[in-house]
Amino acid sequence: MHALWVWAHPHASSLNGRLREVGVSALGAAGWSVDEIDLYREGFNPLLVGRGEADVRRHQDRLRRADLLVVQFPLWWYSVPAILKGWIDRVFESGFAFDVPDPETGKPLKYGRGGLVGKRALTVVTAGDRAATLGPRGISGDIEDVLWPLLHGTFWYTGMDPLRPHLITAADDLDAQATARTEADLRLRLEGVMTEPRIDYLPMSEAHYDHTIRLHDSVAPGDDGLSAHREGGSGPNT
């Protein structure tokens, strides 16, 4: 198996840097080959000005080879760092990740189907907030809802299987013991990364959505939130 580990943090000596080392080492010990993209150290240009540029094609080739995409970043203003957003904007191009036509109908494949189908996607996320604030009823919102644009609107949209975010909270306050536990948790998570169930988003099919791509009234009746777009209308907290 082959993994592409993309990470976005300005400081290699940070907790993020340590977790990247632990994660890449754990995959290697399990027999994986791992390709790393360090966006800051590589000086990746996040500005989208054209299509089909040479550096973008190289990154697409690296993503194409991967069975697993790991995207690691600190949660900044409830989203990804700008350099990572730019990587997605540039690399996930039309014709590569999306706007890939269905050979039977000619219509673009999306939401469970697409140019990146067959790959799994795991986010490794650090946050300064305490765990409760990014969990059920937390003031920041559940992490799966906070990252909806990435998990559903990017990974699932392009056909990848999005996995539950691997969230490290109170990241600024971890002592040596807590850091050791955090490292062990990441190793354990990666051991089962190809067998754990994906987030159970609904595919875009006539069984679930009408011609306006709105859920049929019979699907998750009474649920108008993001959880309605999951199997059985079950959200991350149910």
UniProtKB/TrEMBL annotation:
Q: Which domain of life is it from?
A: Bacteria
Protease keyword on record? no
TM segment ranges? none
Q: Which UniProt keywords apply?
A: Oxidoreductase
The Flavodoxin-like fold domain covers which part of the protein? Answer: 1-184
* Leader sequence residues: none
Q: Which Gene3D superfamilies match?
A: 3.40.50.360
Give a Gene Ontology cellular component term annotated to this protein: cytosol
What name is this protein filed under?
NAD(P)H dehydrogenase (Quinone)
Q: Recite the lineage of the species.
A: Bacteria, Bacillati, Actinomycetota, Actinomycetes, Propionibacteriales
